[in-house]
Amino acid sequence: MTANEPARNAEPEPDSDPEDDGWVSLSEGPLAPPRPPEDEGRNQGTEGHSAPPPPPGVSPPDPDSDPEDDGWISLTPGTLPPPRPAPEHTSPRPTRAVGTRLALDFRGLGGQLLLNRGQTVRLGRSRSWATPEAAEILADEPTVSGQHASVEYAEDGTVWLTEVAEGSTNGIRVNQHQVLTPGHRLRIHTGDTVWLGPHIDFLIRGGPPPTPDDADQPPGT
Predict the structure, then answer these.
(1) Residue 56 has pLDDT above 80, yes or no
(2) How far is CA 122 from CA 71, 97, 126, 155, in A?
(3) pLDDT average, residue stretch 193-219
(4) Spatial contact of 198 and 142, defined as CB atoms under 8 Å apart
(5) Is residue 163 part of a domain?
(6) What is the number of domains present in the chain?
(7) Strands (DSSP E) along the chain, which ranges?
(8) pTM flag (> 0.70)
(9) CATH code where residue 178 lies
(10) Distance between CA atoms of 217 and 221, rounded to whole angstroms?
(11) To pair with 13 at 20 to 30 A between CA atoms, which of 26, 80, 174, 208?
(12) 138 by DSSP, 3-state: which?
């Protein structure tokens, strides 16, 4: 063996590690302590056990969310506008009588008298007392008195028939009923037939129809 030849069986250096393989062993130094969870109780149940993971496709709950939040927005009183009040019920306006004019249709004589509301027509043969148009229609009818009756078409749409106070010679019938007392008016309606004496009659047209109370009321009351 020469002086320059290293000894084959030289002992390892005292500072060398016989098991050093070039990798650093982590056991040589202390490990960093594990980082504690932010809130140990958030993912644990009532007894400290970890909550089961959410099912696939479901996002985990937000730790800052309200556990009672069901997705609905709670509105505090006064948030919504007050409900619109229901429209007040108003009674329907009363309907006016059929037609604006009343007709006394003397069918057998071929004449007709028209009245507006608020007007009164006097029926008779006397040209000085009766309405001129009525006197012209009845002039040649001897069974009709010179002053026989009057018909009033009131402002409220009612129609009234009155025999003259002193009475007519042959009286008046309404639908085969005779007016009992001269000077007392009787309410009549469209469709009624009025007889002046035994032969002359006229039909009421265009006035209000009778009501149930009027239908049960006998003439002359």
Answers:
(1) no
(2) 85, 22, 10, 17
(3) 75
(4) no
(5) yes
(6) 1
(7) 101-106, 111-116, 119-123, 149-153, 159-163, 172-174, 177-178, 185-188, 193-196, 200-205
(8) no
(9) 2.60.200.20
(10) 7
(11) 26
(12) helix
Could you give the count of Cα atoms lying within 13 Å of 59 in the half-sphere of its Cβ?
Answer: 4
Question: Do 112 and 105 touch, CB atoms closer than 8 A?
Answer: yes
Cβ atoms of 179 and 220 closer than 8 Å: yes
pLDDT of residue 178: 75
**Helix (H/G/I), strand (E/B), else coil: 166:** coil
Alpha-carbon distance 22 to 185, whole Å? 138
Report residue 202 as tokens. Answer: 């006229």
Nearest to 205 by CA among 134, 128, 151: 151
User: What residue type is 95 in one-letter code?
Assistant: T
Q: What is the mean pLDDT of the chain?
A: 74
- Cβ atoms of residues 166 and 173 within 8 Å: no
pLDDT in tens, 70-96: 665 555 555 566 667 766 655 544 334
- For residue 197, tell me if it sits in a domain: yes
